[in-house]
Amino acid sequence: MTLTTLAEPKSSSRSNDIVDVVAIHGLYEDAIATWTDPISRTLWLRDLLPEKVPDVRVLNYSYRVGALVTLGDETTDSIHTHAINLVAELYADRQLDDASERPIIFICHGFGGLLAKRALAYSHSRRNKAVEHLCSIYTSTYGILFMATPHNGINADTQLSPQKDHMPGVSHFVRKLLKGSEILNEINDQFAPLMKQFCVYNFWEELETQDGDHIARVVDQDSAAPAWDNVEKCGILATHSGMTKFSSHSDRAYRPVLEALTRYARRAHALVQARWDNDEDLLARERQREADELLQPRNRQRNPSDVRPHNFNRWCLVPRSPSTYFTGRQKHAEDVKEMLGSIRIYDDQTRNKVVVLYGMGGSGKTQFCLKYVEENKHRYWGVFWVDASSEENIETGFSSIGSQAGRGATLAAGKHWLSQCAEPWLLIIDNADDYDMDLPAYLPAGGNGHVLVTTRNPKAVEYATAGHLRFHGMDPDEAIQFLLKAAYPDTHTEAQPSSPSRRRYYAKGITVELGYLPLALAHAGATIRRNIYTIDKYLQYYLVHRRTLMSHQRVKSADETDIISTWEIPFQRIVKHGSIEHRDAVDLMHIFAFLHFESIPETIFQRSWTDPEKSDPRSIELPDILQSVWNEEAQARFRRAIGILCDYSIVDYEPAKASCAMHPVIHSWARDRMPEEEQKQWLRCTMAVLAQCISPHLEASGRRFRSILLPHINSCLQALHYLYSSPPKTLIIATEYERFSWVYAEQCLWKTARDLQKKAVDIRKKLLGRRHKDTILAQRGLGHTQWNLFDIRSAIDTHLEVRSALWWHRPSITEWTVWPPWFPSHVPYCIALSDLTLTLWLAGVRDWSKWTGERAVNGLLKRLGPEDPITLNAMFNLARTYLHLGEHEKSRELLVWVLRLQKRFFGWKHPDTLMTRNELGINLCASKRHLRVAQRLVENVLQARREILGHEHAYTLWSVNDVSKVYAEVGRVDEAIRMLEDALPVVQRTLSEDHVGMFMTKSNLGRAYFAAGKFKEAEVTVRSVINKIQRDHPDWIHNMYGYTHILFKLGAIEQAERNCDDMLAMIAKTKNLALDNPRTVAIADLLAQIYEQQGRQKDIVVLKKKYPGIGVTKSEDRFDPYAIRKGSDTSINVIKHEAATPRRPDRARGPLKHDSDHGLTDRTSGTRKERLHREPFPKLVPRHTF
């Protein structure tokens, strides 16, 4: 590498006017030939340019092209090495010539432009005092002329050099210039923030280059002149080589180049001098800051060493062990350990340390992390792993952490637990490759943690708080050692060439062409180990495969080509093999291609239940390996197939966890290599396998297994949307949607479950009809999901549609003979009524909830008896409605009965049993009876839910609210307040500020404040709830009454009176409550007290006449939603009752038909039907207290 002078400035030039023009040639032409016209032999940089621009010194930089384009030559990060040399040589030449501040203009052809960009980025980064002089190249550069520089890479089909007969294809380095290359992306990312400092002119070739039979532009216009802002661009009517060769000043192609150089030379001095002045100030401030830091006292280390007890590590949740062939990266391990440092280095540590590991796929980032965990887990109390290949998988990963920690299976619970954990932990966030991902949103905010992030996105380094490392190829010696270790694990094998030096020679050539990538080397080693090709023949056959793959449109980059080519060689051998085990291996590989690449459990293929669709002729035909019932023979066959894939290093198998894993690059290629129709076939097969391993009974024992399925279901659904613009609407797809939705719902991912259920319902409605049992089953599931999302209006509509379908669809003709026929009582219909009871209760329409609940229970008692679980569920729903209507005795009798049988059938800790125990405790609390028993019941339920569901599960938070009610009732008000105050931030991050659970918690907190005499705190808390509840909802009355009572205590008499008038007017308008309802009477009683304070006796008399129950409510009960129980139990709105009560046919009315809302309507008039449809269910709003 040399820097030669082509032209000196004229002797008359002033030193302050001189500019250095630095020319850098491209590939395949040397430093002189690049700029020389082949006919006239004019070297225009020497012969033409000084004539027009006399105040220039022209320097020509030459580098050794052969090291870059020759197959098998060593090329570890050659661009970076050449850039360092360019900066060093250019600085030395200018310094010795006493011209270190002289302006620089670069003119670069092809690859020379990439070298200049890399050199400028390197020069800009030299800010340390020891090397700050190298920054002068960046500071002095004024402009750059890029002549067909492949900023965005070249096309894969472009031939850059003649191919040698014995070495087909181009070198590894040249392939790094292909579009999508990780090296090019890195150079562009480094240069982009610097580009605004320079004048840039992009030129592109307008004539195609002919190389044998191939004719094309070497660098197309989009790559040579990208859409950069404030950049000049121009095409030159010449080929790639000819665009830098000019014979005279009259050459039309030369004129725009000359004009740019002339203008740059004229303007450069003023700008560069200003830049030097500014840079000197910046460097002086930076040196002062460094000096100040050295003078700052250091905080003492809390833990001077990492010595830990032998059993210190409690959690190690990683997907698998590192590869047995893992070699090297020791320097990286030391660097990472130094960046992270000791646990709790400083007393004032306030945030976690984040190290970002970035680099191309297959560079060994994941294996490095696995090895790092293996060697350092003793330093950490917990080690956790989150796959970040998609946002769905991130949520699943953190949910798993939250579940393991007993906090709840949600992303927020897992993150918060890590943030609050005082013990030292290590978190690996793997495969965070999505450029649009909001990575900081997934980093725990606090805690005593270290975080390793692996990514292909170099921009992720901005989130590193402790440092970052770039992963590319291995060190050459380590790569050779790794390849030989993978190829010859037994050093005495006869397959080895006799001479170790020859083995190392061949290994060196292979490692160079594989870019020193660990994954590619592992595949190559497996190919040699399995004697597919010997080490001396491997490179020749590999290059043939690689050249073929370079033309494949789905290969995204040259780096991926290396990995995929090494994978294709052994996989093609497996495909060609005729044995059953090899065919099974190929079939499994096709299925794995559509599952998630990490943690593929063997149990997916163990169908422990008899699949009802197995004999269905419409079902997907599965491969032979999955046809038999799972037994020891089937398991052995499965493991033989897995063994073949492992032997060829195609998949990794973890025996202890009975799970497989693949590298993401290989996983993607295993899918992309298949034709589209074949992809669709194997996707349908994979979805069928997943659906069949999901039991329709959702046994509690399989909950953990089903949670493991989530990433694989996500992967299939993503592939489905990618392959189909409109996914097929078949019954099989509907069944798969439905079963997948069960898994999502079980993990509280209600929105995803709802979307899948809607699709399943729509397909079945279209193909089977609205009244088919499968359609109804899917609709019931959809209704329950809408209930959990508190989408009450939609849930009621869904349940009404189910009820209507079941009214018409009866099991037998005899069901039509049951009198009265318009009140069917077959089991499915009664179940639909029970579902509707639950939803109406949540909507606050409790009189209707009671009516449908009683019908459901009565029908099920007749058909199934009082001990059937279905009957018990209906009884529970009705008991809950009774409780909130104030009919406590009826509620308690049902709850006691249900609880006794659920204990016998399901046990104490079954979710249904816990729900009943909790409701019974609240019933006793509301009745003011057996309060100690009530306390014990709700406390035990809370403890059980914390153990089973986690501390932050929605039902656990529900229990916290109920325990607080009982505590307030028994006088433990301070404990109730503390529980609810602690719960508020949990509710906010897990459910949201506007969720009904937040309203419930705030309402109960306000009640506890009131009981403690903290009226101001109560007023602020309850007011925030009042503002979120619609006025026509029953719970608005309850919360407004409590708020008004607080105002009364605070002395805001006038506002309290206005609120009482407002509430009584709303009751009269909506008729949600009768005039003798306990809550109505309590409001009137509060108003009477206000009148009494004001001496308005006449108004009190009038009020008592209208509300006779005034004066019987105890003062201590006035803020209790359950204790107000005097007067009638309930009152059903007369209009509703009339609309809901069916009438017998009246012959005077004419021919009658049945209405879907249980009423009879005249065929000749729609008035009655319209009124029934409109009146029975008024506007519904989710209830906000429980």
Structure, described:
The protein is of the alpha/beta class and 1186 residues long. Among the domains are: 2-157 and 173-281, Alpha/Beta hydrolase fold, catalytic domain (Rossmann fold), CATH 3.40.50; 315-471, Rossmann fold (3-Layer(aba) Sandwich), CATH 3.40.50.300; 476-575, no CATH class; 1029-1124, Tetratricopeptide repeat domain (Serine Threonine Protein Phosphatase 5, Tetratricopeptide repeat, Alpha Horseshoe), CATH 1.25.40.10. The chain is elongated, with a radius of gyration of 39 Å. Residues 1133-1186 are annotated as: Disordered.
Task: Kindly summarize this structure in a few lines.
The protein contains 44 helices and 20 strands. The chain is α/β, with parallel strands linked by helices and 1186 residues long. The longest helix has 42 residues.
Descriptive keywords:
Rossmann fold, 7-stranded mixed beta sheet, disordered C terminus, alpha/beta, 6-stranded parallel beta sheet, 20 strands, 44 helices, 1186 residues
CATH class of the domain at 2-157 and 173-281: Alpha Beta
Instruction: Name the CATH architecture of the domain at 2-157 and 173-281.
Output: 3-Layer(aba) Sandwich
**Unreliably modeled segments:** 159-167, 298-306, 345-349, 608-618, 1114-1186
- The fold-level CATH name of the domain at 2-157 and 173-281 is Rossmann fold
CATH superfamily of the domain at 2-157 and 173-281: Alpha/Beta hydrolase fold, catalytic domain
Principal-axis shape equals: elongated
Helix and strand topology:
Layout: E1 2-7, E2 19-24, H1 44-47, H2 49-52, E3 56-62, H3 66-69, H4 78-96, E4 104-109, H5 111-124, H6 136-140, E5 141-147, H7 172-175, H8 182-191, E6 199-205, E7 209-211, E8 214-216, H9 221-224, E9 232-236, H10 254-295, E10 315-317, H11 330-340, E11 353-359, H12 365-376, E12 382-387, H13 391-404, H14 411-420, E13 425-430, E14 449-455, E15 467-471, H15 476-487, H16 500-513, H17 518-529, H18 535-550, H19 558-576, H20 580-592, E16 600-601, H21 632-647, E17 652-654, E18 659-661, H22 664-672, H23 676-692, H24 703-723, H25 731-746, H26 750-767, H27 773-788, H28 792-808, H29 827-843, H30 846-863, H31 869-884, H32 888-906, H33 911-926, H34 931-948, H35 954-969, H36 973-990, H37 996-1011, H38 1015-1026, H39 1034-1050, H40 1053-1070, H41 1078-1094, H42 1097-1106, H43 1134-1140, E19 1152-1154, E20 1160-1162, H44 1167-1174
Parallel strand pairs: 2-3, 2-4, 4-5, 5-6, 6-9, 10-12, 11-14, 11-15, 12-13, 13-14
Antiparallel strand pairs: 1-3, 7-8, 16-18, 17-18, 19-20
Helix pairs in contact: 4-5, 5-8, 13-14, 13-24, 15-16, 15-17, 16-18, 17-19, 18-19, 20-21, 23-24, 23-25, 24-25, 25-26, 26-27, 27-28, 27-29, 28-29, 29-30, 29-31, 30-31, 31-32, 31-33, 32-33, 33-34, 33-35, 34-35, 35-36, 35-37, 36-37, 37-38, 38-39, 39-40, 39-41, 40-41, 41-42
